[in-house]
Design goal:
Elements: E1 4-9, E2 15-20, H1 23-32, E3 36-37, E4 40-41, E5 59-62, H2 66-130
Parallel strand pairs: 1-5
Antiparallel strand pairs: 1-2, 3-4
C-alpha cells in the first residue's frame, strides 16, 4: 500500500496519523486501521482531508519516551501472559473432561464385550444341546 506519513501515540491511548497518498490508497488505509483485536481497539476515526503535498517519502512510527513505550509494552505483555494462562487452564480442563469421557466409554465398551461374550457362551451351549440325540 503506497501511503506515506507517520503515526504517533498521544496521551490517553489516542493516536494521531498523518498520511499522504492517492485517494484509493488512503481509503484502503483507513479501512485497515479499524482494528478491534487486542491490544488495539479502534473506537473511532476522525478524518480530515487536505491538499496532497508530497511532504513524506515513507511511513514512520514516531516513538515517544522510551521509558513510557517500554512500560506500555510490559503492560501489554502482562495482559497477554494472563490470557495465555487462562487459555492454558481451560485447555487442561477440557483435556481432563475428554479423559473422563474416554474412561466412561471404555467402561461401557468393557460391559458390551462382556455381554457379547455371555451371549456367545449361551448360544454355544444352546446349539450344543440341540445336537444331542433325543431320548424318549
Amino acid at each position: 500500500m503506497e501511503v506515506e506519513g507517520f503515526v504517533e501515540n498521544l496521551k490517553h491511548y489516542d493516536v494521531r496519523i498523518i498520511a499522504e497518498g492517492e485517494d484509493a490508497n488512503i481509503d484502503r488505509f483507513i479501512e485497515r486501521i479499524e482494528i478491534r483485536k487486542f491490544p488495539m481497539d479502534v473506537e473511532s476515526i476522525e478524518v480530515s482531508f487536505e491538499m496532497y503535498e508530497g511532504e513524506f517519502q515513507y511511513f514512520v512510527i514516531k516513538r515517544g519516551d522510551w521509558h513510557e513505550e517500554l512500560l506500555e509494552r510490559l503492560d501489554t505483555a502482562g495482559t497477554l501472559l494472563y490470557k495465555s494462562v487462562e487459555l492454558g487452564e481451560r485447555s487442561v480442563a477440557l483435556g481432563e473432561e475428554s479423559v473422563g469421557i474416554g474412561e466412561k466409554m471404555l467402561g461401557k465398551q468393557d460391559k458390551t464385550i462382556d455381554a457379547i461374550d455371555r451371549s456367545k457362551e449361551e448360544m454355544v451351549t444352546e446349539i450344543s444341546s440341540l445336537s444331542q440325540p433325543f431320548s424318549f
